[in-house]
Amino acid sequence: MKKIARAHTNIALIKYWGKQNAALRIPLMSSLSMTLDAFYTDTYLEPSQQEQFYLNGKLIEGPEAQRVFNYLHLLQRRYGKSGNLSVHSQNHVPTAAGLASSSSAFAALAAAFAEYYQLAVNETELSRMARLGSGSASRSVFGGFAVWQKGTDDQSSFAYSLDSNPDLDLQLLAVEINTGAKKRSSTKGMQAAQTSPFFAPWIKRNSLELSQMINAIKNHDFTRIGQLAELNASEMHAVNLTAQPGFTYFEPTTIGVIQLVHEMRQNGIEVYYTIDAGPNVKLLCQLKNVKIVKEKLVSAFDHVKIINASFGPGIQYLDNYELD
Ligand code: ADP
Ligand code: DP6
């Protein structure tokens, strides 16, 4: 029976934004993320005469499809497999908009590959496989909080579960400002960021920021988690702005939401932001503040869509299910 692999996206609270080895996607820094329940990708593979990639029911050609086929060829070489495959995938997340579609996409693809060839791989191995497709996908193998230890080579660079089912009141509000595909992929953005004079000093701070975040999570300290996540995201966007030449994923509304977050905090509403490689903002708050934060956003920006998320699970395999 055909099984479908489902992976949820994750949002990094300590970001991955640079590679020591581009081909193997070995990062320059360790990262930590929260897997989200609201956004996910479903994928299955089929034998086929010709390689084909269907995303959301549409045949995809060009560089997006090539990235998928190159990845499958790499896995086939590693595991001694061959044959043409067609990929069927459904994103329940906007594609390439800075809402982490590549994290759920390549975790689901790695799991679909393991399922198709019935590989006996454990979660660590699956995380390594996912990493080869997109770095952030290494963390989507796990639910709750995951840490991707940077390592030094293929064997030592994988994610592990920090807490698969956290007993913590942490809500994420995804503020969708523009869900169109971005012009500069994460892969290209992180390469360009390395030209910033602040890149090296930022990398030096990584082990400190990671250990502070792990402690905050262990202490169930929402305030500290929010402060550290906001600082780390701001550092990432500062290195983009100060790259040579500089660039940014921000749009005017992105700045507007950041200013509103500052204003809300001044007025006693505890909310923090984090932002990935796109204009959309993710807000971190507690359940008691979800309603008021949404109201403030809607009254300030009538065109934004807000999606509520909390902790999501790791990889799942679904029976008897058709992609919709
Ligand atoms: P995002 O912010 O969405 O993670 P990225 O630039 O990191 O954006 O990655 C987007 C790329 O991931 C897409 O251009 C495409 O190549 C790939 N991708 C997205 N969804 C899928 C999918 N379901 N299956 C395979 N590849 C996908
Ligand atoms: C800003 O994992 O998409 O979301 O490995 O080149 O595919 P590639 O990059 P990708 O980058 C994610 C960047 C980020 C931060 C993060 O998720 O850690």
UniProtKB/TrEMBL annotation:
<dbReference type="GO" id="GO:0005829">
    <property type="term" value="C:cytosol"/>
</dbReference>
<dbReference type="Pfam" id="PF22700">
    <property type="entry name" value="MVD-like_N"/>
</dbReference>
<dbReference type="Pfam" id="PF18376">
    <property type="entry name" value="MDD_C"/>
</dbReference>
<dbReference type="GO" id="GO:0004163">
    <property type="term" value="F:diphosphomevalonate decarboxylase activity"/>
</dbReference>
<dbReference type="InterPro" id="IPR020568">
    <property type="entry name" value="Ribosomal_Su5_D2-typ_SF"/>
</dbReference>
<keyword id="KW-0067">ATP-binding</keyword>
<keyword id="KW-0547">Nucleotide-binding</keyword>
<dbReference type="InterPro" id="IPR005935">
    <property type="entry name" value="Mev_decarb"/>
</dbReference>
<keyword id="KW-0456">Lyase</keyword>
<keyword id="KW-0443">Lipid metabolism</keyword>
<keyword id="KW-0444">Lipid biosynthesis</keyword>
<dbReference type="InterPro" id="IPR014721">
    <property type="entry name" value="Ribsml_uS5_D2-typ_fold_subgr"/>
</dbReference>
<dbReference type="GO" id="GO:0019287">
    <property type="term" value="P:isopentenyl diphosphate biosynthetic process, mevalonate pathway"/>
</dbReference>
<dbReference type="InterPro" id="IPR029765">
    <property type="entry name" value="Mev_diP_decarb"/>
</dbReference>
<feature type="domain" description="Mvd1 C-terminal">
    <location>
        <begin position="177"/>
        <end position="305"/>
    </location>
</feature>
<dbReference type="InterPro" id="IPR053859">
    <property type="entry name" value="MVD-like_N"/>
</dbReference>
<comment type="similarity">
    <text>Belongs to the diphosphomevalonate decarboxylase family.</text>
</comment>
<protein>
    <recommendedName>
        <fullName>diphosphomevalonate decarboxylase</fullName>
        <ecNumber>4.1.1.33</ecNumber>
    </recommendedName>
</protein>
<dbReference type="InterPro" id="IPR036554">
    <property type="entry name" value="GHMP_kinase_C_sf"/>
</dbReference>
<feature type="domain" description="Diphosphomevalonate decarboxylase-like N-terminal">
    <location>
        <begin position="7"/>
        <end position="159"/>
    </location>
</feature>
<dbReference type="GO" id="GO:0005524">
    <property type="term" value="F:ATP binding"/>
</dbReference>
<dbReference type="InterPro" id="IPR041431">
    <property type="entry name" value="Mvd1_C"/>
</dbReference>
